[in-house]
Amino acid sequence: MSILTEILFLHVSVMYFKKKERLLKQNYKGKKIPCGIGIVLGFVSAFYTFFIYYYVSKINFLVIGLSFLAISAVGFIDDIFGDNRSKGFKGHIKRLFNEHELSTGLLKMIVIPFVLFTGILYLTEDMFKAVLYTIFGSLSVNLFNLFDLRPGRCIKALFVFLVLFGFFINWSPFCISLLILLVPIFIGDIKEVFMLGDAGSNLIGYIFFIITSELYSRSLNSIVVWIALLIVAALNLASEYISFSEVIEKNKILKYIDDLGRKN
């Protein structure tokens, strides 16, 4: 039922934005298509999680559902009001102090760690774990945001990472359901019907975090987290010096995966 609701909302949202000519942005080909449609995934994932909470009464699902809404919503705000005048943490801080403007990018950098920290601290009642997992979650959200530069790349990156960590992940029905919910939005994204926007890429990063950390089971997987955290942190650091798009273009295997299913 959730996936049918998602397909319906995706169709209605795309038709509405095209008809009203709102939130239309140029993709890498210069084609104007609706952006920020990832907010649909945010709402559907949240209500699916609330539905589970209603039946099993496990507080972790309530926390995750609220986080889905908050993380996707703050990304959607960036999709609507964001600009390219400042990039990176330093750029947003300079803009705040020099121009006295709170950019939507800085708003994300404040809201997302706050949402992660409060939710994880409530679940674990452990300050060290809350800080560690907030860092991991925030870096994951930022990393997948960086991947969202070509149709389908962000969700493909998620699948690649999950394959690499597959043997160490507890593949619960909940985590499998989340991946199934990605299918309709992945198809629309890679076919250039719409763009995920920050509303979607932020959420993809959060989904990667909750699956690898096993936050949904409340038995936080510290071994996988340490490994994943190191990889995610290294990639975030590398992004300051190299272009992921250039690396992908120069690597035959990565380029093949990146182009797979995409329009020429």
Automatic annotation (TrEMBL):
Key word Metal-binding present: no
Transmembrane segments: 33-55, 61-81, 102-124, 130-147, 159-187, 193-211, 223-244
Keyword line: Membrane, Transmembrane, Transmembrane helix
Lineage top rank: taxon: Bacteria
Protein name per Swiss-Prot or TrEMBL: Phospho-N-acetylmuramoyl-pentapeptide-transferase
Upper lineage: Bacteria, Bacillati, Bacillota, Bacillota incertae sedis, Caldicellulosiruptorales
